[in-house]
Design a protein that fits this description.
Chain lengths: ~70, ~725
C-alpha cells in the first residue's frame, strides 16, 4: 500500500519507490531503500507528511509519499 | 619539517560541518563560488604544529552520486583536486544515514578521517559506540567531537596530520615499487585496496562489477585517474557525471547489458540495489558496534514541531516570525543607516570644501557626486543586510528554516516555485540585493533562477520614495493607502505570473519533489551566526561594491557631460550678477539666485548625455504617457530607484528635492494627469531593477546572461504593462481629468 495510507505512529517496511531513477536514488541516499523501517510521525490528511527513517526525520510532499510503497 | 596539506570537509547537511569548519579556521576564511556553478566554495586556513592546512568546506551532501549540483561539486573536488585528507563529519545521533556517505568515501579510496560529531547528544540519547570496531569496519580513524563546544578539535587535527603523513609515505612506497615496473603511482593512490574493507554487493552485482572492471582495466587513461572497481560501480549506478569521463564506446553497451541483467534478476535498478547493499553493510556494522540503551530520539523536536508546523497554527506563526524579522531589520537598521548617510554627507562636504566656492571642478563633482555618492548609496544598505542575514542565520541554524519551507511549499508550489522561495520574496520587500543572495538556500538551479529573476517585482524599500512623492500629489487622501496597496499587489501578481511563465517555458523542468530532512532543533552558536552574517555582508560590500562603483561613475558622467557651452554658462552668470545688483531684499535675492541655479541645473541636465537620451527616447516613452523629463529621471533611477525623485527635482528646476517636496508635487500636477502619474509608479515598480540588483544577479547566477535577461525581460514587461494601462485608461477616460 502507499505510504499515505499509513496512520501516524505506525511502523512499516519500505517495499519500493515508484518514481524516476533519479528520485529513487535521491531517496535511497536519505535511507529510503527497500527493506528500510519507516515510522510515520505525522499524517494529518493534508500538508506536512513526516516520517522517521534511519534515525532522522524526513518531510515528504503528499504526492511523493503516495509513490512510496510499504507493507 | 614544515608542510602544507589540503583537507576537505565532507558531511551530510545538518551534521555540524560548518561549525567544525568555523572551529578549525576561525575567521581565516574565504568564500567564493565553484567555477560555473552557484555552489559556494568556502576555504579556510589553519595551523597545527608545523603543518599548514588549507581546509575546504565541501557542500553538505547525503551521498556522492550525481543527483545534485552539490554532490557533483563535492565529488569532483575529491576526484580531481585530490585533497591530502578527507574528513567526513558524522552526526552520531543519526549514525546509519551519515555513514552512507562515509562508506562511499571509503569506496573512493581516499585518505579518510571520520569525525563523530555531536557525541554528547548521542550519549544523552543512550548510544554507545565501539569506536575501535567501527573504525576497523570503515577502515578509517575516528575522532569524537562536539562541534558547538569545540571539543575534540586537537585530536581531530592530530588525526588529520597523521592520515596525511601515512598516505604520503604510502605513495612514496608505491613509487619505489612502481619504478620496478607494474603500475603507475597515481593508480596506486586510488587503489590501496589490499587492507581496505570491501562491501560485498552480492553475487549478481559482484559478477557484473568484475566484468566491467576488467573492461575498464584495459583503458590506461582511466586507470591513471580512477580505481577500476569504483569506476565499475559508478557506471552500474548510471552516474550521469561519470559517463562523459569514460568516453569509451565499447564500455557503454556492456554496462547497459549488465544493468538490465541485474534488473531482471533482482527486480530493481542497479543503483537502488547498490544503495540497499551499502545500507545493509552499515546496518551490519552498527549492529555489532553500536548499542542503544534508550529509545528517546527527537521527542523535544517533535513536540515543538507539533506546534510550529501545525495545520492551523503553522502559517500564522511563520508569518509572525517573518514580520518580526522584517520589522527588526528595518527599525534596528534605521539609526545606523542614518549615521552612514550623515557620514557620507559630511565626507562629501569636506571634499567639496577643498575647492573654492562656486568653482566648477570636474574632479570635485566626480569625487563627491560620482564616487562618494555612489559608494555611499551602496554602503547605506549594509546595516539592513547584516541584520537580515543575522536573523536568517539564526532561523537557519536553529532548524526552523526547514519547517518554514515546508509550511510554504503548498502555496508556493501553485505558483511554480519552491517553499524555500518564500523567504527571499519576503526579504525582497526590503531590498532585492539581500533577497537575491538569500536564494542560496534553494538547491535546485531552476527554482533558484526563477526566484531570482522575479524577485525585483517585490516592491523594494527604495521605490517607496517615488510612491510617497506621487501618490499625495495626484490622489485624494482616502486613496493614499489603497493606491500603495494596489502598487504592491500589482508587483506580487506580476511576480506570480512571470514565475509561472518562466517555469513553463525557458526554466521548464520537473520541480523537485519535496523531500527534505527535518533536522532536530538546535541552539545556534554565537560564533556560527556571526561568521555567517559577516560572510554575506562582506560579499555584498566587495563584489557589488566594485561593480556599483563603476556604474555609478558612468551614470554620473552621463548626467554631467557634455557640460553646458561657455556662452550658456556666461548667460547664467550674467543673470546671477543682475540679481545680485538689482534685487535689494536679502531673502528675495537668495530666492532668485536659487531659481537661476535651478534653471542652470535643468539646462545642464537637458544638455547632458542622459538628457539627450531622454529626449531621443521620448517617442518610445510617449505611449506610456511619459515625456523626456521622466525618461531622464528613469536613467538616474537605474543607479538606485530613489534617485528618480532627485532627478525629477532637477528636471523641474526645483533644486534638491525629496519625496516631501510640495513644490515638486505642484509641478507634477501641472504637467501630468493622474493616469500618467500612476503609469510612472507602475513603470518604476516593474522596470529595470537597479544596477545593484543586476550586479548581484550576475554574481549569484554566475552569468551575465541571466542578469541581462532579467534587465531586458523586466523592462519589456514594464513597457507592455504600462502602455496597456495608459492606452486603456486614455480610451476609457479614466484619470485624465
Amino acid at each position: 500500500m502507499p505510504l499515505t495510507m499509513v496512520q501516524s505512529g505506525r511502523k512499516v517496511r519500505l517495499i519500493a519507490v515508484e518514481a524516476g531513477r533519479g528520485l529513487q536514488a535521491r531517496l535511497a541516499a536519505m535511507g529510503l531503500v527497500p527493506g528500510a523501517e519507516i515510522q510515520v510521525i505525522r499524517n494529518s490528511g493534508h500538508g506536512p507528511f513526516v516520517i522517521a527513517v534511519k534515525g532522522s526525520r524526513v518531510m515528504l510532499g503528499r504526492g511523493m509519499a503516495h509513490k512510496i510503497i510499504v507493507a | 619539517m614544515k608542510s602544507k596539506i589540503v583537507v576537505a570537509l565532507a558531511g551530510n547537511p545538518n551534521s555540524g560541518k560548518t561549525t567544525i569548519f568555523n572551529n578549525l579556521t576561525g575567521t581565516r576564511q574565504h568564500v567564493g563560488n565553484y567555477p560555473g556553478v552557484t555552489v559556494e566554495r568556502k576555504v579556510g586556513y589553519c595551523r597545527h604544529g608545523d603543518v599548514e592546512m588549507q581546509v575546504v568546506d565541501l557542500p553538505g551532501t547525503y551521498s556522492l552520486t550525481a543527483y545534485s549540483e552539490d554532490e557533483v561539486v563535492a565529488r569532483n573536488f575529491i576526484i580531481d583536486e585530490k585533497p591530502d585528507v578527507v574528513v567526513d563529519i558524522i552526526d552520531t545521533s543519526n549514525l546509519e544515514r551519515n555513514l552512507y556517505l562515509a562508506v562511499q568515501l571509503m569506496e573512493l579510496g581516499v585518505p579518510l578521517v571520520l569525525a563523530f560529531n555531536m557525541s554528547d547528544t548521542a550519549k544523552a540519547r543512550g548510544y554507545e559506540f565501539d569506536i575501535k570496531k567501527l573504525s576497523r569496519f570503515i577502515g578509517a580513524p575516528i575522532v569524537q567531537t562536539v562541534g558547538h563546544k569545540g571539543e575534540g578539535m586537537e585530536e581531530l587535527l592530530d588525526a588529520i596530520v597523521l592520515a596525511a603523513a601515512e598516505s604520503k609515505s604510502k605513495i612514496n612506497g608505491d613509487q619505489e615499487m612502481s619504478s620496478t615496473g607494474a603500475l603507475s603511482s597515481k593508480a596506486s593512490i586510488r587503489g590501496p585496496r589490499l587492507q581496505m574493507p570491501l562491501i560485498n554487493y552480492g553475487r549478481e552485482i559482484e559478477k557484473e562489477i568484475s566484468g566491467i572492471q576488467s573492461l575498464v582495466q584495459k583503458e590506461m587513461v582511466l586507470l591513471q585517474k580512477y580505481d577500476p572497481r569504483w569506476l565499475a560501480i559508478k557506471l552500474l549506478e548510471n552516474d550521469k557525471d561519470i559517463w562523459p569521463r569514460v568516453n569509451s564506446p565499447a564500455i557503454r553497451p556492456l554496462v547497459e547489458e549488465s544493468a538490465s541483467r541485474i534488473e531482471k534478476v533482482l527486480g530493481e535498478h542497479p543503483e537502488t540495489a547498490i544503495a540497499g547493499a551499502r545500507y545493509g553493510f552499515i546496518s551490519g556494522a552498527c549492529q555489532e558496534a553500536v548499542r542503544s540503551t534508550v529509545e528517546a530520539r527527537h521527542t523535544m523536536s517533535d513536540r515543538i514541531d507539533a506546534v510550529v508546523t501545525n495545520r492551523v497554527l503553522g502559517l500564522p506563526i511563520f508569518l509572525g516570525l517573518m514580520y518580526l524579522v522584517f520589522h527588526l531589520t528595518f527599525t534596528l537598521g534605521d539609526p545606523p543607516m542614518g549615521w552612514i548617510e550623515e557620514f557620507f554627507g559630511w565626507l562629501g562636504g569636506v571634499v567639496d570644501s577643498w575647492w573654492p566656492e562656486g568653482s566648477e571642478s570636474i574632479l570635485d563633482s566626480l569625487i563627491v557626486d560620482g564616487i562618494i555618492g555612489g559608494v555611499g548609496g551602496v554602503i547605506v544598505f549594509l546595516p539592513n543586510i547584516l541584520l537580515l542575514f543575522l536573523a536568517i542565520a539564526i532561523l537557519e541554524d536553529s532548524g526552523y528554516m526547514a519547517r518554514a519551507a515546508f509550511i510554504m511549499d503548498r502555496l508556493m508550489h501553485n505558483i511554480g516555485l519552491h517553499g524555500k522561495s518564500f523567504i527571499p520574496m519576503m526579504i525582497g520587500f526590503g531590498c532585492s540585493v539581500p533577497a537575491i543572495m538569500a536564494t542560496r538556500t534553494l538547491e535546485n538551479r531552476r527554482d533558484r533562477l526563477t526566484t531570482m529573476l522575479v524577485l525585483p517585482l517585490m516592491s523594494c524599500g527604495a521605490r517607496l520614495p517615488i510612491y510617497a512623492l506621487i501618490i499625495p500629489a495626484f490622489f485624494p487622501q482616502a486613496w493614499h493607502g489603497r493606491m500603495l496597496w494596489i502598487i504592491y499587489m500589482t508587483g506580487i501578481g506580476l511576480a506570480i505570473l512571470s514565475a509561472k511563465l518562466l517555469r513553463s517555458t525557458i526554466l521548464k523542468g520537473e520541480s523537485v519533489p519535496f523531500v527534505m530532512e527535518l533536522p532536530p532543533y538546535r541552539m545556534p552558536t554565537v560564533k556560527g551566526v556571526l561568521i555567517h552574517m559577516w560572510e554575506r555582508g562582506w560579499l555584498y560590500l566587495k563584489k557589488a561594491g566594485t561593480i556599483i562603483l563603476g556604474v555609478s561613475i558612468i551614470l554620473w558622467a552621463m548626467t554631467a557631460f557634455p557640460r553646458l557651452p561657455d556662452d550658456e554658462k556666461a548667460r547664467f552668470e550674467n543673470e546671477r550678477h543682475m540679481v545680485q545688483t538689482i534685487i535689494q531684499g536679502e531673502e528675495e535675492k537668495a530666492g532668485r539666485l536659487a531659481a537661476v541655479d535651478n534653471e542652470e541645473a535643468e539646462e545642464a541636465l537637458q544638455y547632458s548625455i542622459a538628457g539627450r537620451i531622454g529626449r531621443t527616447m521620448e517617442p518610445i516613452l510617449r505611449p506610456m504617457g511619459f515625456d523626456w523629463k521622466i525618461g531622464t529621471a528613469l536613467i538616474g533611477a537605474f543607479a538606485a530607484k530613489e534617485v528618480f525623485v532627485a532627478q525629477m527635482g532637477i528636471v523641474y528646476s526645483v533644486g534638491e528635492a525629496d519625496e516631501e517636496s510640495e513644490t515638486l508635487r505642484e509641478k507634477l500636477r501641472d504637467n501630468y494627469t493622474p493616469l500618467a502619474a500612476f503609469c510612472i509608479m507602475l513603470f518604476c515598480l516593474v522596470s529595470a531593477p537597479c544596477m545593484a540588483t543586476i550586479a548581484i544577479t550576475k554574481r549569484e547566477s554566475n552569468s551575465w546572461k541571466w542578469a541581462l535577461f532579467q534587465l531586458g525581460g523586466l523592462t519589456a514587461l514594464a513597457y507592455v504593462v504600462t502602455v496597456l494601462v495608459f492606452q486603456a485608461g486614455s480610451l476609457l477616460g479614466v484619470g485624465i481629468g
